[in-house]
Amino acid sequence: MTCYDLTGNKADLDESIRHQEENLSVCPIGYLGRSVTLNGLGIALLTWYEHTTNVVDIDESVRYQREKLFISPIGHPNRSVALKNHEIALHARHKKTGKIFDLDDTIEYHRENLCLCPISYSERQFALNYLGSALMPRYDLTGNKVDLDESICHQQENLTICPIGHSGRWLALNNLGIALRDRYLKQARNWDANLDEIHQLKGFESFLRATPFATLQQAAISGPIIMVNINKYCSAAIIVQETGGPQCVHLSEAAPSVIEALL
Questions:
Q1: pTM tops 0.85, yes or no
Q2: 237 by DSSP, 3-state: which?
Q3: Which pLDDT tens digit goes with each residue over 203-221?
């Protein structure tokens, strides 16, 4: 991989993968060096997938990273690295296939990784950002508000540990803003849906709507209806009669205190 990293030559990457596959074949399960080879091979195949976009390559990368995670149980010093690399491979496969179970696994691994990053740990901001960002696409797929609320919670914590001047603050602000916007839009859609249901009920057709002028005219059969608007800048009265249009009378000379006393 080092040669490929320097040259970007796909032939170097291809050769690296072949050597690592051969190396893995002579590192049986339980062998001390198998973990390192699994990790290197998984990363190399993920890089190869970025060139080919062949799902077989990303499947192989996920398989090797999963085995690497399996032999790095909870408490193992390499567990965090194994989690991160497996998360990256799963996320790439989810983007390719759209299968939600990869996204579910990614989120669970992000949660575990966050638990490995205590509040004082410098890597915590990245763990918070990764988890918050992973929850958003699942919310987009399922509409589950729990995911959206959890994402906002993590992004808010991320913002608190990225004070003004911190290099990661712009990203924390951006991600939190997106999540808050989505929650607002969801609440607005719920409000509109609930309001539509209320308008279907008899007698509530005009609930929270402006009263139609024809309805006001019907109410003025017994006499004119006068509506007075009092404002410290300008006051006016609107007169509605059984026939004809509304009449507006400006009360520019009347102080609000005088009008209030008359009502």
A1: no
A2: strand
A3: 888 888 888 888 888 888 9
